[in-house]
Structure formats: structure tokens, C-alpha cells
Automatic annotation (TrEMBL):
Taxon lineage: Bacteria, Bacillati, Bacillota, Clostridia, Eubacteriales
Protein name in the entry: Resolvase/invertase-type recombinase catalytic domain-containing protein
Source species: [Bacteroides] pectinophilus ATCC 43243
Residues covered by the Resolvase/invertase-type recombinase catalytic domain: 14-97
SUPFAM superfamilies assigned to the protein according to its UniProt record, in alphabetical order: Resolvase-like
Gene3D superfamilies listed in its UniProt record: Resolvase, N-terminal catalytic domain
Length: 97
């Protein structure tokens, strides 16, 4: 009698990282690189695969007008670039002052 073991490969959740600062002071005070580092650490801790990173500098968070990288990210998600739509996450760090 043979016993078959089915190996199920655990697929990592794929994620996109989006960072933003709204003013030049914030660009200097809490850098995009620092935000990316925190989000990369979180993704690694959650065993996620980062498939894209996007950043906008000097834009208000009140609306998405002028947020070219945010719009590019949404287009990439919609087009299914690098990540199936049903298995993806968006990571962002929210800073309140």
C-alpha cells in the first residue's frame, strides 16, 4: 500500500507599499525611506512578498490629485501587474501630527 502526501505550497500574500509626505518639512522630518523601512519590516514579519513600492512627495492627503505614484500603483493593481487582484495587500503608514 502506498501513501501519498500532498504538498501544498503556501503562497505568500503579495503587497504594494505606498509612502507619502505632504510638506517639505515632513520630507525632511520623517523621510520616505524611514516609512519604507518600517513597512518592509512589517511585510517581512507578516511573510508577505513586496511586489511594488510607490512614493509621492509634497502632496496633501486630502485628495489624490497630483499623486502620480498613487495613481500608477492603482493602475498596476487594476492591470494585475505582479500580483493577482485576489491575493494582494496595500501597506501604508499613517502619520498624524
Amino acid at each position: 500500500m502506498e501513501i501519498f502526501h500532498e504538498c501544498i505550497e503556501k503562497r505568500k500574500t503579495k503587497c504594494y507599499i505606498y509612502t507619502r509626505v505632504s510638506t517639505a518639512i515632513q520630507v525632511d522630518g520623517y523621510s520616505l525611506d524611514a516609512q519604507k523601512d518600517k513597512l518592509r519590516e512589517y511585510a517581512e514579519f507578516q511573510d508577505m512578498e513586496i511586489v511594488g513600492e510607490y512614493s509621492d512627495e509634497g502632496h496633501s492627503g486630502k485628495n489624490i490629485k497630483g499623486h502620480q505614484e498613487f495613481m500608477r500603483m492603482l493602475n498596476d493593481i487594476e492591470d494585475g501587474i505582479d500580483s493577482p487582484k485576489e491575493n494582494g495587500k496595500l501597506l501604508y503608514l499613517s502619520l498624524l501630527q
